[in-house]
Amino acid sequence: MTLGPQDESTNGLATEPSGFFFRAVKTSEDRRRIIAALFPGSDDVHHWWFRFSVMMGLSAIISLLGLSLNSAAVVIGAMLIAPLMTPVLGVSAALVMGWFGRLRDSAVLILLGSLGAVAISWALTSLLPSSDRVLTPEVLSRTSPDLRDLIVAVAAGAAGAYATSRDDVSSSLPGVAVAVALVPPLSVVGFAVSIGRLDLARGALLLYVVNLLAIILVGAGIFLASGFVPHGRLRMASKRIRVGVAVVALALVAVAVPLTSASVRNAGQARLSQTINETIVTWLSPYPSLSMNAVSIVGVDVKVQLSGPTAPPPTKELISLLKSVVGPHVGVRVVWYQTAK
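User: That's the sequence. What structure does it adopt?
Assistant: Structure tokens below.
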């Protein structure tokens, strides 16, 4: 497989760009610069593959260790060196130019890089001592995506494509890589599979797919708007471009459905948690010496941790108050830690 120049790459490159909303790509030289950045030449493809493989492997290792150490700084370091953004934006560019040969090559590169990151993370997790194979907050934060993650991915995809199309803002690409976070979800997939948590692996994989599709779709839109596609090319391959963009859009809508459901569910849970906390504060209002340390909610069971010098009021009073909030089958457990007066 070669990612080098193809006959189709020169078709229509000298034609005046379309530039629907802004014209970041004003000349054929601008267009060739973008193509050179996203698709390696045939004389450099072997070195490009080697560099991509090395950086992808190192990114996966750093990401997995950062997740295990619960270190946001280490995870960010992995995002900065991850090379996946280039072939992902390459898919976007090939999609709007109707270059399905280059689209296939970039997609294969993404697939191989993603599978390699998962495999490396799985193997490395298997080598870690059991004390390090724990579900840190950095791991868990990438297993329950919602609509906010989709919005971040859309914005990052737009920023990535815009930074690629304009030479004067291309230095922003590392920041885009941090925002969209393609490699850490893949590391979480390998980590979760290694410890037997397939439910968490599915959540992390969904986050990765959402990020990937959002970048491709929005990146394609930005490349169209920037004038990357010449008028002649747009007329000649309009059907193929529309079909390709429609397929990605439908796939993104399909994965957005569970994200929307998750957002609605999380919002409802947040409102319920707030109401329960307010009810407990009302229950404790006649006892100012008692402090509420923590509240945990699992289904219809509520656990309250209190501390103070005096015993809490009867639990049945709290149960009565919470029945109107949680339901008639609410269960309440109060744990009181006595402190000195």
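Residues 1-21 have pLDDT under 50 and may be disordered.
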